[in-house]
Specification:
By secondary structure, the protein is an alpha+beta fold. About 50% of the residues lie in helices and about 20% in strands. Helix 1 packs antiparallel against helix 2, helix 1 crosses helix 3 and helix 3 runs parallel beside helix 4.
Length: about 170
């Protein structure tokens, strides 16, 4: 990551933090304490997931995900690490996972619809003593048949489904 990317990331994180604080303060000023408390719990959950991601020892992947969120506000990533997955001493391959996510993102990107905001949820699961990753995108994508065809060509991809949403599973 170069200095410009680092500054962009810091600015985005600060911006998000200020938005969260303003939401809490606004809700308190309006007497909506329950909404303020709900937002605080949401922030705590997100911080917990960031800590869980840190525990996986994936610096390149972590920076990559944060940079994507900072640079492409129309396509936001979140992550979820299964708590049981943290109990072992086997960690995902950081270089490999970052490369896989880069390839997947580059394949999906041409299929996003203008003015749509996307939320990609990346899950880290431990299955049969092996790391498994699942990516879910709820929002509609353009030309999904072609998208699925390209995603299935990736050698590490185990499944691609598009029933109610796009869901990818790979190791």
């Amino acid at each position: 990551m170069d200095e410009k990317q680092a500054m962009k990331l810091i600015q985005q994180l600060r911006h998000d933090w200020m938005n969260d604080l303003q939401l809490i303060l606004g809700n308190l000023q309006l007497g909506k304490q329950d909404k303020a408390v709900e937002k605080i719990y949401s922030i705590m959950e997100k911080a917990g997931q960031n800590r869980a991601l840190d525990q996986l020892q994936l610096p390149k992947t972590t920076i990559f995900l944060h940079l994507l969120n900072a640079e492409f506000t129309h396509f936001q990533w979140e992550w979820h690490v299964e708590v049981d997955a943290l109990k072992g001493d086997t960690y995902p391959d950081d270089d490999q996972l970052k490369l896989q996510l880069t390839e997947i993102y580059e394949i999906i990107q041409p299929h996003v619809i203008d003015f749509e905001v996307y939320h990609a949820k990346l899950s880290f699961l431990m299955k049969e003593e092996q790391w498994t990753y699942q990516l879910t995108i709820e929002e509609a994508l353009d030309n999904t048949d072609y998208l699925v065809e390209n995603l299935k060509r990736l050698p590490y991809m185990e499944s691609v489904t598009t029933r109610d949403h796009l869901q990818l599973t790979w190791r």
